[in-house]
C-alpha cells in the first residue's frame, strides 16, 4: 500500500510538472525567438534609415558606414544594395577573408535583396545558425535599395539552453520534494494499517491479548484501530468465558458420573442375577452418558480453538492413524487401508488432522459390517490437498447427509452423533471444507479439501489458543 500511494503521488507530480513546465519552456523559447528577430529587424531598420539619406537624399555616407562598423564590431554582417541589386557598402563576416566580403554580399544576399526589391517588405531567413533580415530602403512601394543584416543566433540558443536547464532543475527539485512528501504521506497512512493487519493476523493465530497501537495515522485509521481493539477485547472475554464453561462442565459432570459408576459396581457385586443384569444396563447407560459428555467437551474445545496453521505431512499422519486403528479394524473384520502421495503436505493446526481422521475412521468402523472396507486416500490438486475417507457400508440418506455436521443432527448415527460436527469445525477453522458423497457401488465418502502451504510462505510458530 505504501508503494502504491507513493507511486500514485509521484505520477501525479510528474504529470503536473509536465503540464506546467513544458508549456512554460516552449512559451519562453518562442518569446526568445521573437525578441531576437525583433531586435535584429530594429538594428537593420536603423541602418536602412541612414542608407536612405545617402541613396535618396545624396548626403554623406558617413552615418551609414558608422552604423555598419558598429554592426561589424558587434559580430553582425551587414550590406546595403542599390536598386540594381549591387552592393553599395558591406561589412566583413566572421570566418571570411576580406576578399570574400563582396562575394558574400553579392552572392549569398543578392537573391534576398532582389526578392525585397520585387516585393517590398521585410524578409527574413535562417542560414548557418544565423538570422538574415532584409529591409527595403525608402518608400516601401518604390524602394531605393535594400539593407541586409545577418546576426548569429548563438547567444539566443545559449539563453534558451540556460532557460531549459533552470526549468529542468526546478522540475527535478519539485520532483524530489514530491517524492519525499509522497513517501512520508504513504508511511503515515501505511504504517498504522500494517500494524492493524499484523494485530489481526496474530489474533487469528490465537493471541487473544493482542491489540493494535492507536493514535497514529489519519483519523479513519485511528478509528479502525480503536474498533479492532474493542472487537478483540470482546472476543477475548467471550472465548475465555466459553473455556471456563468447558472446564466447569468437565469437572462437574465427570466426577459424579465416575462416582455413580463405582457405586453401581459395588451394588452389582452382591446382587442376584436379575438385579445384576439391571445394574449392567444402568452401567451401559452411564458409559453412554460419559461418551456423550466427552463428545460435547470435544466439540466445545474444537469450537473454542483458534488454530495456528503449520505444514503437516498428510501421508505420515495417515500411515500413523492406519497403524493405530488396524487392531480395531481387524477385530471387527474390516479392511482398513491408507494411500497418499509421497510428501503430501497440508497447512493445518498441529494435531487437528489426527483428530479429524480418528473421528472419521471411528464413524466408518461403526457404520460398516464384517467384510467391509475403509480406505483413506490423499492427493494434491492445484491449490488444495484432497483427502477422502471411503467406505462401502450402508451409506447415509440425503436428509441425514444434510444434517450430519450439526450436533446430534444425524438421527441414523449409532454413536453420540458428534463426530462429524467435530470434523466440520476443525476443517473449516483451518480454512478447508468438508462434504459427504455417495460411494460408487454403495457406501459413504467423506471429501476433505485442506489448504496447501504456499511454495515459499513464511514459517509459522506452534499452534496456540486451544
DSSP helix fraction: 55-70%
Total strands? 12
Low-confidence stretches: 97-107, 456-466
CATH topology of the largest domain: Beta-Lactamase
Number of domains: 4
Pick out its properties.
4 domains; 466 residues; Beta-Lactamase; rod-shaped; alpha+beta; single chain; disordered C terminus
Structural overview:
This protein is of the alpha+beta class and 466 residues long. It has four domains: 157 residues, Beta-Lactamase (2-Layer Sandwich), CATH 3.30.450; 35 residues, no CATH class; 55 residues; 145 residues, Heat Shock Protein 90 (2-Layer Sandwich). 58% of the residues lie in helices and 17% in strands. The chain has eleven helices and twelve strands. The strands form three sheets. It has a five-stranded antiparallel sheet with strand order 2-1-5-4-3, sandwiched between helices. Helix 5 packs parallel to helix 6 and helix 6 packs antiparallel against helix 7. The longest helix is centred in the N-terminal third of the chain and has 54 residues. It is rod-shaped and about 165 Å long.
Amino acid at each position: 500500500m505504501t508503494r502504491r500511494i507513493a507511486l500514485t503521488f509521484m505520477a501525479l507530480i510528474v504529470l503536473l510538472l509536465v503540464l506546467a513546465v513544458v508549456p512554460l519552456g516552449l512559451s519562453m523559447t518562442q518569446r526568445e525567438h521573437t525578441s531576437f528577430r525583433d531586435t535584429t529587424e530594429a538594428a537593420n531598420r536603423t541602418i536602412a534609415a541612414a542608407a536612405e539619406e545617402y541613396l535618396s537624399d545624396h548626403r554623406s555616407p558617413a552615418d551609414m558606414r558608422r552604423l555598419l562598423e558598429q554592426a561589424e564590431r558587434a559580430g553582425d554582417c551587414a550590406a546595403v544594395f542599390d536598386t540594381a541589386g549591387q552592393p553599395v557598402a558591406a561589412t566583413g563576416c566572421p570566418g571570411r577573408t576580406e576578399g570574400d566580403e563582396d562575394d558574400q554580399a553579392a552572392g549569398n544576399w543578392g537573391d534576398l535583396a532582389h526578392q525585397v526589391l520585387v516585393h517590398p517588405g521585410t524578409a527574413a531567413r535562417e542560414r548557418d545558425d544565423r538570422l538574415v533580415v532584409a529591409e527595403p530602403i525608402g518608400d516601401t512601394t518604390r524602394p531605393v535599395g535594400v539593407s541586409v543584416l545577418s546576426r548569429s543566433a548563438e547567444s539566443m540558443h545559449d539563453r534558451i539552453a540556460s532557460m531549459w536547464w533552470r526549468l529542468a532543475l526546478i522540475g527535478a527539485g519539485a520532483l524530489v520534494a514530491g517524492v519525499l512528501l509522497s513517501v512520508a504521506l504513504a508511511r503515515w497512512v501505511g504504517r498504522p494499517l500494517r500494524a492493524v493487519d499484523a494485530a489481526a493476523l496474530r489474533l487469528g493465530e490465537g493471541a487473544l491479548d493482542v491489540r493494535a497501537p492507536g493514535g497514529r495515522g489519519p483519523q479513519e485509521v485511528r478509528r479502525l484501530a480503536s474498533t479492532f481493539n474493542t472487537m478483540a477485547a470482546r472476543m477475548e472475554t467471550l472465548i475465555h468465558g466459553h473455556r471456563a464453561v468447558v472446564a466447569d462442565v468437565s469437572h462437574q459432570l465427570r466426577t459424579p458420573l465416575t462416582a455413580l459408576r463405582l457405586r453401581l459396581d459395588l451394588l452389582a457385586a452382591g446382587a442376584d442375577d436379575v438385579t445384576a443384569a439391571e445394574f449392567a444396563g444402568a452401567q451401559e447407560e452411564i458409559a453412554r452418558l460419559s461418551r456423550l459428555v466427552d463428545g460435547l467437551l470435544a466439540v466445545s474445545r474444537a469450537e473454542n480453538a483458534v488454530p495456528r496453521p503449520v505444514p503437516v505431512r498428510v501421508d505420515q499422519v495417515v500411515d500413523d492413524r492406519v497403524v493405530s486403528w488396524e487392531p480395531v479394524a481387524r477385530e471387527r473384520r474390516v479392511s482398513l487401508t491408507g494411500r497418499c502421495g509421497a510428501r503430501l503436505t497440508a497447512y493445518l493446526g498441529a494435531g487437528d488432522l489426527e483428530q479429524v481422521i480418528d473421528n472419521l475412521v471411528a464413524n466408518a468402523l461403526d457404520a460398516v459390517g464384517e467384510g467391509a472396507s475403509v480406505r483413506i486416500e490423499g492427493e494434491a490438486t492445484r491449490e488444495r490437498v484432497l483427502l477422502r475417507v471411503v467406505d462401502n457400508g450402508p451409506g447415509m440418506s440425503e436428509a441425514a447427509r444434510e444434517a450430519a455436521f450439526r450436533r446430534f443432527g444425524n438421527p441414523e448415527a449409532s454413536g453420540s452423533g458428534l463426530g462429524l460436527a467435530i470434523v466440520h469445525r476443525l476443517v473449516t477453522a483451518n480454512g478447508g471444507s468438508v462434504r459427504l458423497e455417495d460411494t460408487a457401488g454403495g457406501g459413504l465418502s467423506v471429501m476433505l479439501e485442506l489448504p496447501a502451504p504456499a511454495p515459499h510462505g513464511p514459517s509459522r510458530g506452534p499452534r496456540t489458543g486451544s
